[in-house]
Design goal:
This protein is an alpha/beta fold. It has one domain (2-190): Aldolase class I (TIM Barrel, Alpha-Beta Barrel). The protein is 22% helix and 25% strand. The radius of gyration is 16 Å and the shape is globular.
Length: 193
């Protein structure tokens, strides 16, 4: 059984797949309590569904792209669920804080959004996404040596952009164009979930 907070269909607003239609499966629970978290559902709303029940809810949408998010998806072993979705011809992306990559190793795409910048992992995922505000220790990101994309995403408000942080991140991308790419949470700019 999966502990699901919500299932919805929208535009991916972040990272490499920004602008594509995705089915979002938001799982309940997280191993962290970040003060800037922009989702409360993973703490308050939970339904238990088996794989077939989830499929019945997502098959109504025309997209074959799924993103599993949270909370933190890797507090659960999702490899069997990912295999199930693959058999139904879905492309499966997961966003994680890096708690346990082994629990999502079957995913087609993994976005790693570390919250502890003193312990940044280098393997087991496809792209970095760092939540940045004006007080973030960006020098730690400049020290990363990798070939993976490093997206920096402004720390925004719950439902709207924080333009001060947006401008700060734009300036960082312009200053370090070989290092960073901008991830904007486009859905907050266009007013969709």
């Amino acid at each position: 059984m999966l502990k699901v907070s919500s299932i919805f269909y929208s535009i991916q607003g972040e990272g490499m797949h920004s602008g594509r239609a995705f089915i979002f499966i938001r799982l309940f629970g997280c191993n962290l309590t970040c003060d800037f978290c922009d989702d409360e559902l993973h703490k308050t709303t939970m339904h238990e569904f088996d794989f077939e029940e989830v499929y019945q809810k997502i098959k109504i949408y025309p997209s074959k792209n799924v993103i599993i998010t949270g909370g933190e998806p890797t507090i659960y072993d999702l490899n069997d669920f990912i295999n199930y979705l693959h058999k139904k011809d879905y492309f499966v992306s997961v966003e994680t804080n890096g708690y346990d990559f082994s629990k999502i190793k079957r995913a087609d795409w993994i976005t790693y959004s570390p919250k502890d910048w003193d312990d940044i992992k280098s393997e087991g995922f496809d792209e970095y996404k760092f939540i940045v505000d004006k007080s973030s220790p960006v020098e730690k990101l400049l020290q990363l040596s990798c070939v993976k994309e490093i997206f920096i995403q402004p720390q925004n408000l719950m439902h709207t952009p924080n333009m001060e942080n947006v401008h700060y991140c734009v300036d960082l991308v312009k200053k370090y164009p070989q290092k960073f790419r901008l991830s904007l949470q486009m859905h907050k700019f266009i007013g969709v979930d």
